[in-house]
What does this fold into?
Amino acid sequence: MKNISLDITKAACFLEAGAVKAFEPKVKKAQIALEEGTCPGNDFLGWLHLPSSITPEFIAEVNQAAQVLREKCEAVVVAGIGGSYLGARAVIEALSNSFAWLVNDKKNPTILFAGNNIGEDYLSELTEYLKGKKFGVINISKSGTTTETALTFRLLKKQCEEQMGKDEARKVIIAVTDAVKGAARTCADKEGYKTFVIPDNVGGRFSVLTPVGLLPIAVAGFDIKALVEGAQVMEKACGKDVPFEENMAAQYAAVRNGLYQAGKKIEIMVNYQPKLHYYSEWWKQLFGESEGKDKKGIYPASVDFTTDLHSMGQWIQDGERTIFETVISIEEPNHKLLFPSDEENLDGLNFLAGKRVDEVNKMAELGTRLAHVDGGVPNMRIAVPKLNEYYLGQLIYFFEIACGISGNLLEVNTFNQPGVEAYKKNMFALLEKPGYEADTKAIKARLESEK
It folds into this structure.
């Protein structure tokens, strides 16, 4: 079976001859630091060999819990934010029917996502939609006190209990949380919820292959065994003993860091498959939260082509030359649709008659890559044989290990996120949360002085 593959030729040509190869010793050092746990953030390396540690028994346990929700619920709300929902959403939306909300699929509950914002309208409309429905909740939070998720879970828990009764609600609420501590663990133990553990040594943005991602994906009806198998294959293909020239994660990390040093400060993730929109959102968090530290880091952006060619195409083609692109290309779509002929040919498109729509899309992809390279935009291309669980598993692990290597090359702590706490401190002070009295006083004085 083919694996995903990486073509760096249209990016390496923007660097000096031998520049990619020159990264080999640095990449090797970065890989060894990950393997030996000598890099900053080494207490969060549990994802590194996670795929190969997942057992058939564990997959069976996740599938069994998912089946309970599938049998009892019309809808399941995944309550989580950041890495606690983006990975699951990326996979579910990539594999789902694009018009799933219109499809009468009685086998699978509708998967909804909440706890990732504080929008009153959003939450009001969600609770209104759930009225009269049998719904379950997957509450994903290590601490149980993350504001967006905790606020949402309190609303949903109350509604679920009111509509179904506490005994039935207990059967359709699952907590994915810390093993022993935190508000979510305390609540789950008190209420008797089924629980899964988020490993202490796996950060949120690297947690897709833990129950954080696997449980919602299984509830949606997808094959988590194949997802894990794909990740296992990529774990071997990107291991530290794989030669540099054959290791696509090592090559990708080397090229993107070479381009960064050459002044390319923005990486644009490009897809030509609308189903990959949330995959790009997951990728943006993975690299943005991992590398954006110490006033360093490539800025991760994303576009959905060809749609965004009609909004961002001009800037990418002719704007400031501080960008490079990484294109995810799905080689074979899951459906086949031929373009029809038309006798009058008023739109002038009969030259496409009989061609697959995907052929038109592929020529748009190739034509755009050629134009952007000619316009001074380095391009890397990741070819994915098919959009399914197995290859998404490969793609997930590929970017995780590449991110780990790349962060070490950049000499930052890839696995923390100190900057995320700054806004929380201000928000809690403004809301007058107990324990933040001094901060509340200081912020109020500052705001008064700025009037």
Notes: The chain is about 50% helix and 15% strand. The beta strands are 5-7, 75-79, 110-114, 135-140, 173-177, 194-197, 266-271, 299-304, 323-332, 379-386. The mean pLDDT is 94. The two ends are 65 Å apart (CA to CA).
